[in-house]
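Sequence only, no structure available. Ideas?
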Amino acid sequence: MTSLPRQLSVLRNATLSDGSIVDVELSGDIVGEVRPATGRPVMEGQLDLEGFVLLTAPAEPHAHLDKALSWDLINPPAGDLGRAIESWRAYSSVMTVESIADRAREQALAMLRNGTTAIRCHVDMLVGAEPLRGVEALVQVRAELADLMDIELVALAGPDATDDTVEAALDLGVDLVGGAPHLAPSPGHDLRRLLAIAERRGVGVDLHTDEGLGGTPTIVELARIVRDWTVPVSAGHCVRLGTLEPDELAEVIVEILASDIGVISLPITNLYLQGWDHPVSTPRGITALRSLIDAGVRVGAGADNVRDPFNPVGRSDALETASLLVTAAHLSLDEAYDAVSTGSRSVMSLPFAGVEVGARAELLAVRGSSLSEVIGAASADRFVIHAGRLVSQSRVTHDIAAPRLIDTLALELSPTSN
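Reply:
I predicted one. Tokens follow.
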């Protein structure tokens, strides 16, 4: 039987990303003190992190827990965004609240095991009868996991979802209004409709935005409409920004900054979905991260879909996202990890967290000696801390056959040696 979760008072001998080794004192869910490691014995309520790198826990700013782990159930054709949507809509008619909740719970716990302590989940307004099955399932899962992680819900309203359906989702406890206006027959109309609902209800917005390599960016109109809003506004995907010419991109970034819109990059899913019609010099399908970060835009990054029609792979691990940001977006190691942790928390309007006095104790310890080893090797040997409590621990063992013993002196004296 597990003894988790358990409250922690001190984290000893932790290695930080700058290489320093520290003891971290916790005061409930807040970091109370960070000091050089003392080497004192580990007592009850403390955790020895010798050999582990201690980091701000990842936050997933854009998940689809209602879709997760459905690839094998649907067996969809591989392909672009249009094919994924078609296969998902066809399958969604047979889903029940219970089946959605089971997959969502399994996926959320897999993410927690790997270190993610906060998730923002977009939930489909399903077609046909009972369009709120997904919402009902996710509200249930959020309540079940409330002691282990933070979950925000977004009503993902397609153009065929009525205003009444979106309002009903908010009444059930959904936190934000979402949608994908760029996929609607009239993108501008759908954008304004969704923003009107959010304004009427006084809630924030997180929209799927410009999820394609071409077309006129809708994020400019979004930015202008929400210019004076005081609630959180964010835009996910924004793939189109990555294909704009520098002058046009600069103009768009000015609009984004003026409205303080958080931008969410989703490399795993967008690398899969984008570029199918470009067999030569295939575009990367990632937003203009370098330009956005350099301009001071708040940027987060997540995995989006995991093993569903929109992405057949994914390890439920923010370190996979960080690794892809280094490889495909040319971010530094520090920038990549910041995007999946502190940056994502900023976009999600969550309190500041990390190994700093006064910060929330949302922490992840991964076996390793440096940030490059943590992102590169991504050991599954981890401790996950939420609100100052240990909520997950994974232990890894290795049994490897012994290598052949070689007499190196004899090898050096051998006439056949070089």
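The mean pLDDT is 95.
Hope that gets you unstuck.
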